[in-house]
Amino acid sequence: MTLGDTSVLDRLNGAERDVLVLLAQGHTAKSIASLRSVTVAAVNERLRSARRKTGVGSSRELARLVGAQDNRHDLIGLADTRLGPETPSRPDAPSLGRAFLTRRWRLIVITATLLATGLLAYQAATPPAPQLQTPRSNSLVEEILAATSSPPDIAALHAEASAHSNDETWSSATEQLLKSRHEALPDFGMDVETLNITCATTLCEVVGKARSDLAGEKLDRLMAAIQGLDRSEPRLPLKALVHHFNATNGSRPNAVFVSYWHRED
C-alpha cells in the first residue's frame, strides 16, 4: 500500500486509528497505554489488528500513513475553502468565514503537533541527566515495586518487556503459549483474577493478581506452581529469569506476582 492508495485505512476502527495517530506523534506503546488507561498488551493487540486489516507489515509505517492521510485531508479542506468554486450553502450550514477559521485552526494544531514530535525526537536522541522519577501508571508492576524494599531490577525488565517487538509473530505466539500454560495450572482460573502477558522481541512479562481471599496453603500452592512452570513438560522455549511475589496495599490486600521469561531459540 502507498500513500496515494489509502482506501484500506478505512477498515480501521476508532481505537486502532487512535493508537496509530499517537504512535505517529512519537509515543511508545507504554506511553499510549498510560494515556488511554489500558494495558500495553491491549495497545499491541490494536496495532496487530490494524496491520492485519491493512496488510502493512510495520506499525511505524502504518502510523506514518495514517498521520499523512489526516494531514492531507486537513490541507485539502483548507485548499477547497480558499480556491474552490462558490456553491449555494444550506440554511443550517456554517458561514464560509467560520469554516475557514475552523480549518485554519486545525492546520495550526497539526503544525504544533509536528513541532512537538520533532522536539520529542531531539530529546530522545539526547540522553537526559539521571534523575528520580515518580511512576505515573497504576499497573500491577508499579504496585509490586512500591511494596518491595529491595526489589530485583524489575523496573529495567519491565521497560524492556514493554518495548515494541521487532518479531510480532514470535511475540504473539509466545504470549498465547504462556497464557495457556498458566491457565492450565490447577485452580489457576479460580485463584487468579487478573493475568497480563506482554512479549517484546526477546523478553516476556507475566503479571497477575490473586483473589483477595486467597491465602495459606492455597496461596503457597499457587506460588509453587508458577515457579515450577520452567521445569514442567513440555518444556517452554524460554528461560525463567525471576519470579517475584508481593502484596498490594489496602484493607484487603491481594497477592500479586510478576515473572520474566527470556527467549531461547
Please characterize this protein's 3D structure.
With 265 residues, the protein is α+β, with helices and mostly antiparallel strands. The protein has two domains: 7-125, no CATH class; 140-263, Alpha-Beta Plaits. It is built from ten helices and four strands, in the order αααααααααββαββ. The chain has helices at 14-24, 29-36, 40-54, 59-83, 96-125, 140-146, 154-161, 168-183, 188-191, 216-227; strands spanning 192-199, 203-210, 238-247, 255-263. The chain has a four-stranded antiparallel sheet, sandwiched between helices. β1 and β2 form a beta hairpin. α1 packs across α3, α1 (14-24) crosses α4 (59-83) and α2 (29-36) packs across α3. The relative contact order is 0.10. Mean pLDDT is 77; it is low at 78-101 and 129-138.
Describe the structure concisely.
The protein folds into 2 domains: 7-125, no CATH class; 140-263, 2-Layer Sandwich (Alpha-Beta Plaits), CATH 3.30.70.
For this entry, give a set of tags.
265 residues, alpha+beta, Alpha-Beta Plaits, 2 domains, 51% helix, elongated
Largest sheet: 4 strands, antiparallel
Structural class by helix and strand composition: alpha+beta
The rough form would be described as elongated
Strand content: 5-15%
Uncertain segments of ≥5 residues (pLDDT<50)?
78-101, 129-138
Give the neighbour order of strands across the main sheet.
1-2-4-3
CATH topology of the largest domain: Alpha-Beta Plaits
The first-level CATH class name of the largest domain: Alpha Beta
Q: What would you say the CATH architecture of the largest domain is?
A: 2-Layer Sandwich
Distance between the termini: 33 Å
| Secondary structure tally, helices | 10
Q: Name the helix and strand elements from N-terminus to C-terminus, one letter apiece.
A: HHHHHHHHHEEHEE
Structural Rg? 24 Å
What's the average pLDDT? 77
Proportion of helical residues = 40-55%
| DSSP E strands, number | 4
Number of domain units: 2
